[in-house]
């Protein structure tokens, strides 16, 4: 008979599984955290877009899509919904052939409310749990692991 606990332990101690598990856990955590601390008025992807535009006001729809690993059309749909909700305005500049996405006061207020929760609950906790060196090393290990995998089969994300 197979010792399921023994097999499971070996499987769960695999780095690839742990990374996948952490990625899935993080997605669920983000959704639950968002619902509890930020609220239902703004979706998690919309909040992330506000964060990107807050730090990078000149980000285009294509830039946002690249960072979020989504298609440009999908991001365009989200931006249109955000404009309808009053979180951003979209201004087309003929001279640059570019639509600028500008955070409105309503969007800025929601972002500030949400980012205060992120800072107070996640960033401060992360910084007290791990040293700067540990975080840098962890990120370095993840990059190294991705590079190793990419040397086996080239992967290009959106």
Secondary structure topology:
Blueprint: H1 4-12, H2 15-38, H3 44-55, H4 61-68, H5 72-85, E1 88-93, E2 98-103, H6 105-129, H7 132-152
Antiparallel strand pairs: 1-2
Helix pairs in contact: 3-6, 4-5
Structure write-up:
The chain has one domain (4-152): Winged helix-like DNA-binding domain superfamily/Winged helix DNA-binding domain (Arc Repressor Mutant, subunit A, Orthogonal Bundle). Helices cover 72% and strands 8% of the residues. It has helices at residues 4-12, 15-38, 44-55, 61-68, 72-85, 105-129, 132-152, and strands spanning 88-93, 98-103. α3 packs across α6. It starts with a helix and ends in a 6-residue tail after the last helix.
- Say what the CATH topology is: Arc Repressor Mutant, subunit A
Quote the beta fraction: 5-15%
Which CATH C-level class is it?
A: Mainly Alpha
Shape: globular
**Unreliable residue stretches:** none
Distance between the termini: 45 Å
- What number of domains? 1
Tell me the CATH architecture: Orthogonal Bundle
Structural class: mainly alpha
Largest sheet: 2 strands, antiparallel
User: Count of helices?
Assistant: 7
The residue fraction in helices comes out at over 70%
CATH superfamily membership, which one?
Answer: Winged helix-like DNA-binding domain superfamily/Winged helix DNA-binding domain
Number of strands: 2
Mean pLDDT: 92
What order do the SSEs take from the amino end to the carboxyl end, as H and E? HHHHHEEHH
Radius of gyration computed on alpha carbons: 20 Å
């Amino acid at each position: 008979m197979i010792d399921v606990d023994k097999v499971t332990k070996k499987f769960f101690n695999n780095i690839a599984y742990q990374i996948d598990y952490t990625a899935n856990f993080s997605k669920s955590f983000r959704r639950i955290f968002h619902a509890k601390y930020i609220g239902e008025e703004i979706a998690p992807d919309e909040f992330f877009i506000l964060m990107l535009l807050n730090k990078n006001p000149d980000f285009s729809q294509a830039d946002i899509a690249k960072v979020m690993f989504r298609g440009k059309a999908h991001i365009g749909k989200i931006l249109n919904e955000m404009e309808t909700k009053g979180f951003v305005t979209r201004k087309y500049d003929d001279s640059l052939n570019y639509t600028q996405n500008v955070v409105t006061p309503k969007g800025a207020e929601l972002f500030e409310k949400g980012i205060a929760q992120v800072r107070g609950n996640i960033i401060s906790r992360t910084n007290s749990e791990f040293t700067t060196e540990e975080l840098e090393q962890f990120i370095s290990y993840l990059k190294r692991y991705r590079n190793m995998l990419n040397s086996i089969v080239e992967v290009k994300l959106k």
